[in-house]
Design brief:
Radius of gyration: 15 Å
Largest sheet: 8 strands, mixed
Number of helices: 5
CATH superfamily: 2,3-Dihydroxybiphenyl 1,2-Dioxygenase, domain 1
CATH architecture: Roll
Distance between the termini: 7 Å
Helix content: 25-40%
Number of domains: 1
Structural class: alpha+beta
Number of strands: 8
Order of helices and strands: EHEHEEHEHEEEH
């Protein structure tokens, strides 16, 4: 299965400090920063390249909620992008291998806007998000494998 890394999510204690580091030291471009500061977006992101972002989850997103018990480390989850056909086949493989889908399908924001995501865990409990985007053009879809 071929795919593209869409994003990783870091649980952060100090969102502003992390934004400063990633934008001023590593020169990654902040995204949804003003929306976050106005309370319109739950978290800001920084862009590594056209296909990949790092989401910076503030404490209220990872210390509370349904998955708080599994998020004591800094890596919250990572996200893979697949074509829709490959995504549907992945769901079938998860079912055959008796791997629970913890959440989804649900719409979620990522490196290419809003996509449809599912969440499941690897054998060591790392949370993995797999998604597809309806609106990617043909050249972008080719990058995502079949």
């Amino acid at each position: 299965m071929e795919c593209v890394m869409d994003h990783i999510v870091l649980n952060v204690d100090d969102t502003e400090e992390m934004l400063t580091f990633y934008s001023k030291v590593l020169l990654f471009t902040p995204e949804r920063l003003e929306e976050y500061r106005r309370g319109e977006a739950p978290f800001p992101s920084v862009r590594l390249n056209p296909d990949t972002i790092i989401d910076l989850f503030p404490q209220q997103m990872w210390r509370e909620g349904s998955r708080a018990d599994c998020h004591s480390g800094k890596l919250n989850h990572f996200c893979l992008v697949l074509q829709k056909k490959a995504w549907l086949m992945l769901i079938q493989r998860l079912e055959v291998n008796k791997i629970d889908i913890e959440e989804g399908p649900v719409p979620r924001w990522g490196a290419h806007g809003t996509g449809i995501s599912i969440y499941f865990r690897d054998p060591e409990e790392t949370l993995i998000e797999a998604r597809y985007y309806e609106g990617l053009n043909n050249s972008e879809q080719c990058l995502l494998g079949s």
